Amino acid sequence: MIWPQAVKDRIKSGHDRELIRSYPYRSACPSTVWGELTEDAGSDLFFAGYTNYFLWTQVPAFVETVRRKARAGCRVRFLLGDPEGEVTRQREIVEDVALTVSTRIRITLEHLDRLGPLDGLETRFSAPEDATNHVSLSVFRFDRDALVTPHLARLVGHDSPLLHLRRQGEGGMFDRFAEHGEELWERGTVRAPVSRKPSPPPRT
Fold first, then answer.
1. How far apart are the C-alpha atoms of 74 and 204, rounded to whole Å?
2. pTM for the whole thing?
3. Nearest residue to 191 (alpha-carbon basis) of 74, 73, 77
4. Which long-range contacts (CB under 8 A, 24 or more apart) does 155-161 make?
């Protein structure tokens, strides 16, 4: 009753407090935001984009940070779409871009293999029956923060909107999106790292 209506309109209450910022395009979110959230996380990093390709090219020092976090005891998880899956094939037709969905997934897998076997680093493919739900919604979690991208129609990820959420209590937007990611993870298929064969000795 004391505050002017203009002030009240600017103050978030209830679950609205969890929305830190929204971006009309994922690409409008500065790479420094991704870098800072990754760096500040101490216990849980969960990257549940369908390809996760952009992380390796746009987030500053991403490889070094992931390796350091895993070695320090942080749980680091990557949930990917199956590059051989039917939904992946259909999405490639829809997007119709040169850098295909399956190629972007395989680039991520290559980066993960280069990280080597690390305790705390886990990779899974979403189950075939969940692939449609996975490709339409990306959830990236950094402890109590999350970046969420609902994918629009024929647009690729960087052209879809993004929400920055911070958990404030039970049952809010953060929890609902986090539960979505956890359900996909639990039903997913464990993907073991590719073992690298030693190089053959040089011929003499």
1. 46
2. 0.85
3. 77
4. 156/95, 156/97, 157/26, 157/49, 157/50, 157/51, 157/54, 158/25, 158/26, 158/27, 158/54, 159/25, 159/26, 159/27, 160/25, 160/26, 161/22, 161/23, 161/24, 161/25, 161/26
Q: What are the structure tokens assigned to 179, written together?
A: 């539960």
DSSP class of 146: E
| 3-class secondary structure, 114 | helix
CA 93 to the chain's CA centroid: 22
User: Beta-carbon neighbour count of residue 133 at 10 Å?
Assistant: 14
Q: Is the pLDDT of residue 143 over 60?
A: yes
| Cα–Cα–Cα angle for 177, 25, 167, rounded to 5 degrees | 30
At residue 41, the pLDDT reads 97
Distance CA(95)–CA(179), nearest Å, equals: 28
Query: Smallest Cα–Cα separation from 143: which of 60, 21, 42, 72?
Result: 42
The residue assigned the tokens 């101490």 is 42
Phi, psi of 30 (to 5 degrees): -60, 145
Q: What is the pLDDT of residue 183?
A: 97
